[in-house]
Specification:
By secondary structure, this protein is an alpha+beta fold. Helices cover 43% and strands 11% of the residues. The strands form 4 sheets. Strands 1, 2, 3, 4, 5 and 6 form a 6-stranded mixed β-sheet that branches. Strands 7-9-8 form a 3-stranded antiparallel β-sheet, with helices on one face. A two-stranded antiparallel sheet has the order 10-13. β11 and β12 form a beta hairpin. The longest helix is centred in the last third of the chain and has 30 residues. It starts with a strand and ends in a 10-residue tail after the last helix.
């Protein structure tokens, strides 16, 4: 049914998410130019569609009027009679209606009666929502956030995202990605609405928002004008992006990686795959889907440490049964004076001597190279840290309490003289003391040598080159010097003994 409705009685579709309609003056000019060709519809080639709503004190939520009810409200010339309780809601045609308002406001000839042609049907809410989606999908200037709001309204009336995707002819992944936009702060959504940020850039900012929420007030960030050291705070970076600074989606992802290295910890696979009893510091039983997890980084170290402790207890209990030797938490049981000690221990273990009177023990040790029995199903000295890998038993290390029983060796104990364990440990302790003393003297010498003439920029550059990603950034000059020297001693070609005292 085609009727002519006063512009003052027309409302937008209640499901319309679009906020910007652009310049309607050009559209108004084209409509006016076609007035002679389409006189019955005031220059419109395609008639907008809508429904008539009756709303008063008795029916405040409004009621859609049927075809017969609408007939009683139309004059003989096809015009809707003015009535405060009667409104017309557009299904689609919002820009055309605004173009008509423009023509009326500009006192354009032929549009002084402020009437707008609409095809009326008794449309349901579902049909009105579908009409908005159909209308906006055909336009290029609707934002991704506005589409997301429409998808959310449709999802509220559907069983699943898959059902929404099938009904509106889009991929389910598109539905999921659009809906993620609605989880972003209003300032980021607005930047997408007005065209400052693409959908891709907005989604790239999602982990930055998470980092900001989880680390607010807990982390020291860098300054915007520094090229070395920690990145700027997430809130400052987000402001840079939404304010129009040219930062690509790849640039946003690069910032995210740097920020995660600064505040997060790598999530070991053994922890990511486990289920821990929730409670205390453990905020989520599983890591999958946890809000504190971004990619393979954990932003809640307290929870990670608590889960590692649970895994440790479980693994120790299992290893005690499998190995048949006791657990030890004594540091001295795992201290070896030299490589020869490790070879002896490995030979005794391989000979089966651990079942013949030797005092083997095991421990959970994750931060150093050690003799590990669960690597390649035999005892091996592993130089790298394999703890918390796919098999958490890689964290188990083998030690020995007391002197080595050389009589259990395959050669019957006919070996060169081996000092007792206490003496070897005393030598090792003295060697560490001398190393520490030499290290401090080297630091002092380096400090005197540079005579505080290195500027902050150069020291920051040196620190940025040699520091590990997970290391804490050092701000004190003395700590920076120690860091540089330690790196030189560890990876340089010389040794401490070459540094004169």
């Amino acid at each position: 049914m085609l009727i002519f409705v006063p512009l003052t009685q027309i409302d937008d579709n209640p499901f319309q998410a679009r906020q910007e309609y652009g310049d309607t003056a050009d559209l108004a000019g084209r409509i006016a130019a076609a007035r002679d060709s389409y006189p019955d519809t005031y220059g419109l080639m395609q008639i907008p569609r809508g429904r008539v709503i009756f709303r008063n004190a008795a029916e405040p939520n409004g009621r859609v009027l049927s075809h017969d009810e609408v007939q009683h409200l139309i004059t003989t010339s096809g015009r809707l009679m003015p009535d405060k309780a009667v409104r017309v809601e557009l299904a689609f045609g919002h820009r055309r209606m605004r173009a008509f308002r423009y023509l009326y406001d500009m006192s354009t000839a032929g549009y002084s009666d402020a009437r707008f042609p609409i095809h009326i049907d008794a449309l349901t809410d579902e049909q009105m929502l579908d009409a908005v989606w159909s209308e906006n999908r055909e336009r290029k200037d609707i934002s991704a956030v506005e589409e997301a709001e429409l998808l959310q309204r449709k999802l509220e009336r559907s069983k699943s995202q898959r059902e929404v995707a099938a009904a509106w002819g889009v991929d389910r992944s598109t539905v999921a990605n659009r809906l993620r936009l609605l989880e972003l702060p209003a300032e980021i959504q607005q930047a997408n609405r007005d065209g400052r940020l693409s959908e891709r850039a907005c989604l790239a900012l999602a982990p930055v928002v998470t980092i900001q929420a989880l680390t607010n007030g807990r982390t020291k960030w860098g300054k915007a004008d520094q090229y070395w050291g920690p990145p700027v705070a997430p809130a400052d970076f987000i402001q840079q992006v939404v304010s129009g600074e040219k930062i690509s989606s790849d640039g946003i992802r690069d910032y995210t990686k740097n920020a995660l290295r600064h505040v997060g910890r790598d999530l070991p696979k053994a922890i990511a795959d486990m289920r821990a009893p929730q409670g205390g510091a453990i905020i989520s039983s599983g890591c999958a889907g946890c809000a504190s997890r971004i990619n393979n980084t954990c932003l809640t170290p307290e929870c990670l440490e608590a889960k590692i402790e649970v895994l440790k207890e479980q693994t120790i209990a299992d290893a005690e049964v499998v190995l048949g030797i006791p657990f030890s938490d004594r540091e001295e049981d795992f201290v070896f004076a030299n490589w020869e000690d490790k070879k002896v221990l490995q030979q005794i273990w391989d000979s089966g001597g651990q079942r013949g009177g030797s005092n083997f023990v095991f421990a959970w040790r994750t931060n150093e190279a050690a003799l590990r029995p669960f690597v390649n199903n035999r005892l091996e000295f592993v130089h790298m840290n394999t703890a918390l890998a796919e098999d958490p038993r890689a964290a188990i290390a083998i030690g020995h309490r007391g002197n080595f029983p050389t009589h259990l060796l395959p050669d019957g104990g006919e070996r060169s003289y081996m000092p007792e364990r206490a003496m070897r440990q005393a030598w090792d302790k003295e060697a560490k003391r001398l190393m520490k003393e030499a290290h401090q003297k080297a630091v002092d010498a380096l400090w005197d040598m540079i005579d505080r003439r290195l500027d902050d920029g150069l020291m920051d550059m040196m620190q940025a080159i040699i520091a590990r990603p997970e290391s804490k950034w050092q701000y004190e000059r003395s700590e920076q010097v120690k860091l540089v020297l330690t790196h030189l001693l560890q990876y340089g070609g010389g040794t401490v003994t070459h540094i004169h005292s």
